[in-house]
Write the C-alpha cells for this entry.
Amino acid sequence: MNFAHLLAARTDTMGVNAIREILKVVSQPGMVSLAGGIPAPESFPMAILRELSAAVEQKYGSSAFQYDATEGFGPLREALVDHLAAKGVAATAHGVLISSGSQGVLDAMGKVFIDRGDVVAVEAPTYLGALQAFNPYEPRYVQMATDDDGVIPESMAEVLRAHAVKFIYLTPTFQNPTGRTLSLARRKAVAHIIQEQNALLVEDDPYSDLRYRGDALPPIKAFAPDHVVYTSTLSKIFAPGLRIGFCVAPPLVRQWLIVVKQGVDLHTSTYNQALAAEYLAGGYLRRHLPTIIDLYRPRQTALLGALDRHLPDGFTWSQPEGGMFIWLEGPAGLDAETVYWRAVERKTAFVPGKFFFAQPGEGLPTMRLNFTMADPTTIDRAVQTIAEVIKGLNS
Amino acid sequence: MNFAHLLAARTDTMGVNAIREILKVVSQPGMVSLAGGIPAPESFPMAILRELSAAVEQKYGSSAFQYDATEGFGPLREALVDHLAAKGVAATAHGVLISSGSQGVLDAMGKVFIDRGDVVAVEAPTYLGALQAFNPYEPRYVQMATDDDGVIPESMAEVLRAHAVKFIYLTPTFQNPTGRTLSLARRKAVAHIIQEQNALLVEDDPYSDLRYRGDALPPIKAFAPDHVVYTSTLSKIFAPGLRIGFCVAPPLVRQWLIVVKQGVDLHTSTYNQALAAEYLAGGYLRRHLPTIIDLYRPRQTALLGALDRHLPDGFTWSQPEGGMFIWLEGPAGLDAETVYWRAVERKTAFVPGKFFFAQPGEGLPTMRLNFTMADPTTIDRAVQTIAEVIKGLNS
C-alpha cells in the first residue's frame, strides 16, 4: 500500500535531508571524520555516572522511574537555578523547563508561533537542526548578515523593520557551524533592538561551557530577560545520549511550551533528569568540566595549527575561543561539495558549509570542521588531505 | 511583555486542558485517587534495574551515553523483534522504530498526515493523550460508535464511506478509558474494512501485556500488516519514567516518522534504550511480568467487587480481562462532574468520563476508575465514598 496521497501539505517542506544523504558515507570504516558535531565519548564522566546511579537510587528510589511532571523533575529544575545564575540567567526553579534535548524547545517554538508563511529570522549561516525543527511549521526564513563578531545588529534591526518576524533564532556563543561568538557590545545592541521592537528572541546556548580561552560573556537573556527564550543543554558537558535540555522563557511562552510538550512526549525521562540533578547539585559538573576542556583545547589548537601549515592562500577561518567547530571560507568559485567528495575518496570527511544556509546557493566555498572527535595527529592528517584535495582541484 | 499576538493560529485548538485543571486537586495530601492512569511504583523492577545498569555499562560502555540513530538503538530494535513476534506482529529490527513513549508516535502521525480540517476517526470514548497529540494539527474528529466489544465495525465502515479519513485511531485491547477489548471477530472485520477501503489505522497497544484472565488476542496489525501503524510502549511493563515506546509502520509511514522525530528530539535516550534492550533480551521482562500481574489482578478484583457491593441500581460497568481501568456508566441525567467535586471534598478522586469524548456534551454520566495505584482496602473505601456521594446527590 502507498499512503502518499494522505500526507499533510507540510511534508513538502520536510523532504529528505540533503546533508543526511551526503553524510551517509561518513560512517564507512576507516573514515577520518571532521564532519561530526558530537562530543568525544572520552569526555563522558563514566566513573561519575556510577556514583550518580547509586545516589539516584538512594535518594529517589522508584520515583525516578515513574511518570513525572511535564515541566521537569523538581530537583533538576532546582539544581539548574545555580547553573543558570552562574551564566547570568536569573530564574526560579518554577521558571526552568526541562526538554528532551534543546531540539524539543525548538520544535515547540515552531508549533506555538509559526503559521504557514510566517517569518523567522536566522543567522546566515545557522544551526541546521533548528531549521529541521521549524520546517514542518512552514516558515519563511529571512537571513541576517553575520561577520566574525556574529550577527550584525543593523542587519537584525533592518529585518525586524521590513518583516513581521515571529521570532529571531540566534546561537550567540561558539555558534554551530561557524564557532563565532557575538561580541559584548553586540549582545547589548541586540538586547536593545528586541526590547525596542518588542521582538521575541530564541537564544540557543549549547556550547558556552566549552571555553578554552578568554572570558565568558553574559547571554543576551541577561540584558533582555522578558524578550528571550534562553535554551541550553547538558549534551556537551554531561552526556548527549541522556537527552537533557532546558530553557527559561517569558511566562506566556513557558505556558505554551508546557502544553506542547505534554502532547509530544508527556515529559523527559525522569531517571535521566535525576542523574542530571545529582551531576549538578553534587558538584560533579564543576569537577569534571576541566577534564573536558583539557581534552578539547589541544584538539582545537591542532586544527588551527594544521590549517596554518597546510592550506593554500585564499582561505580564511574563524579563531573561536571555544566550542566544537572551525569555519573555513575558501576563495569565490570554490565548490566545497566537490572538495568533500574527493576528500571522502581519500577517507576524510567534513561538512560543506552550504547546508547551513536557509537560502540555497549561499556558502558554496565554505566548510565546517569539527575538532572534538579526533586526536591532534589525526586532525593534522585530515587537514593535510583536505589541503591536498584543494590544491589538486584544477589539475 | 506579552507575545500573545505572535501565537500561531493552531494554539486556538490547544488551549488549557480542562481535565488537567480539574485534576489539579488530586495531588492534595490525603487524597485517595482512582483518577490516575499510571502504574504502581511497586510494579517497577528495581532490583533488576541494578543488574541492567551493570550489564549496560559492561556491554556498551560510553556508547550508551552518546548520540545515536533517530530510528533507535540497534540492540533494542533487535530485542523488540521477538517481543513483537510473541504478540503476533511480524517485524525485522530495521522495521522497528523507537519513540519517546508512544506519545511521540501519535504526535508524529499528526504532523505527517493532518492538515487543518482533515478527518481523524476515533472511538467514542477515546484516549485523551491521542487527542492532545493530534489537536495542534487541527483535525476534525469523527467518532465511531463502540459497545462492550469495542468499536463497532459497521460504524467504522460508515465513517470511512462518509468522510475522507486521514487515519483511524484505535486502542483495541483494554482501552483507556473503558478497559474494553475488541473481539477477535471484530479485529478481523476491521482488518477487512481497512484493506478494502485502503485506509490507514493507528493501533495503540499499551496494555495488552497486563492480562489477568482469558487468552491473548492477536493485534489488528497481524491481519492487515500493510495498513496498520502498530504502536506500543514499555511504560506499563518496565518503567514509564524511562519513556520508551516503539512502533512498526508501513514503509512510507516509517520514513516520515523518522524525519519528524529527527526534528523533535533527534532520538530517544540511548541509555534508557540500552536498559530496555537488556530487560528484554536478558529475559527479565518474562520473569518480572508475573509479579506485575499478581500485583494488579487482586486490585482489579477488589474494584469490581466494591462496585457490586456499594453502587446503587442503574449503574453498569465493564468487566475487562486486563489493563488499568474500569468504565462506569450511570443513569441518564447523572452529572459525573458533580459527583467528582463532591467526592473530592471527601478526599476521593476519579475521572469524569466526558473528557474522553472528542465531541463535547457526550459521556456526562460516565466515569473512569483506575485500580493500579491503590491497594484493595483503599479501593473498597474509595468506591464506598463515591457510592455515598451518588446516593446523596438528590438530597
Summary: Chain B has a mean pLDDT of 95.
